[in-house]
Amino acid sequence: MTSGMEKKPKGDPSFSAPIANITVPVGREATMTCIVHDLVSFKVAFLRVDTQTILTIQSTVITKNHRIGITHTENRIWQLRIKDVAFLRVDTQTILTIQSTVITKNHRIGITHTENRIWQLRIKDVRESDRGWYMCQINTDPMKSQVGYLDVVIPPDILDYPTSQDMIVREGYNVSLHCAAVGSPEPTITWRRERGKPLLSVGSREIFSAEGPSLIIPRVNRHHMGAYLCIASNGIPPTVSKRVMVIVN
């Protein structure tokens, strides 16, 4: 009895599941998983989509090193060219090139697989520059591929400049406090005072916190004197803060 579904011929590999998009904090390890069915003698490769850089082919890590090049004349005279100064450790038998492909070991990138079916690209010590689309490819004709996105998140960091420093101001003047922070996603800035004191008083209402890169204190008086906290957060720990002291004369 024939099933209503068309059976794929043996040796026709396919993907069993899509590559999941992942989010990884900077400095951690990222794993992109590609699940392949019926691979047989075909090969799996991982590529960086935006640069079209081949990262791995099967269990071999392949990364581009722009200091190393290979040229040949009529497929007979092959010349390895190394820009700047570099040395090759003979005892490690490190392969630098095969034909016209540069192959170098990148200790941050690795590839593992289980029973030739579950292929995992591993990127250690993730950097912001690793953010982007990654492709898992099978060398069929036509080629089969799928992509997944690696997002790299970065905890907040408060910049010394143009963030305000401790200041001395005259009573009755307006004061502007500024706080600048970087991170991914973009941090939110919150202002508070130490010891739970109110930031501002509007009529009979007291304001204990405010959001935004700047805090304006109109017509300061001695009640405004003290420490103000600029707090930067973006959901990626740790939250950071800077203390700005305001002294009123």
From TrEMBL:
Sorted alphabetically, which InterPro entries does this protein's record hold?
Ig-like_dom, Ig-like_dom_sf, Ig-like_fold, Ig_sub, Ig_sub2, Neural/epithelial_adhesion
Give compartment(s).
Cell membrane
What keywords are assigned to this protein?
Cell membrane, Disulfide bond, Glycoprotein, Immunoglobulin domain, Membrane, Repeat, Signal
* Domain Ig-like stretches: 156-241
PROSITE patterns, alphabetically?
IG_LIKE
Q: Which residues cross the membrane?
A: none
| Principal location class | membrane
Q: Write one Pfam family the protein is assigned to.
A: Ig_3
Please indicate if the UniProt record lists Kinase as a keyword.
no
Can you list the GO cellular component terms from the UniProt entry? neuron projection; plasma membrane
Q: What is this protein called?
A: Putative lachesin
